[in-house]
Amino acid sequence: MSDERQPDTPAEDAPDKPDQNRSAGPEDRKGRDDRARDDRARDDDGKADGGSGKDDDAEDEAAERQRERERELERASGRIKEYTRDPLAEEQSEDAPTDLAAAARTRRATRTLFDVGRDLTSFDRSYIGSAIVGDINLHMDARRSGSGMRSGPVPDEELRRLRRVHVEPEGYLRLRNTLRARRLLVLGAAPGTGRTSTALSLLDEVTTASANGAAPEPGAGSRVRRVDPDGGVRRLAESLGHSHDDGEQTQSGTGYLLELSLTRPGALPPAEMDLDELAAALDRRDAYAVIVVTVGSAANALLAGRYGMLCPPAPTQELLRTRLLERMERHAAAAPDGGPAPAELLARGEELWAREEVKGVVGLKDLRPAEAGLLASLLAGHVLGDLSYEELLAGCRSLAASQVQEWFAGVDRALTARPADGSGAGHPDTATLFHPVAFRIALAVLGGASHSAVAAAAYLLTWELSVQCDPDNTPARPLFCDDPEADLALSRAEVTDGRVEVAGGEVPARLIWYRGTALPSAVLTELWDRHFPVRAPVVRWLRLLADDPRSQVWMRAAVAAGELCVRDFDYGYTELVRPLAEAATPRRRIFAATTLDQAAGHDSHRGTVHRLVGDWSRNGTKALRWTAAMALGYGNSAASMDDTLDGLARIGVRDDGDQLAVASFNVVRLLALPDADQVLTRIAEWTHHKREAYQDLGLVTTVRLSLTTVDEVLTEDPDAPLADRGDWPLPLALAATRPELVGPMADLMWTALNTARARDVAMDALERLLRSSVRKDGTEWTRPGLAELLPELATEDHDQRRLDWLLRHMMNDPENPLPDARARDLWWLAVTPRRPDRRERTRRERTREEDRHG
Question: Where does a domain end: 536, 563, 584?
Answer without folding.
Answer: 584
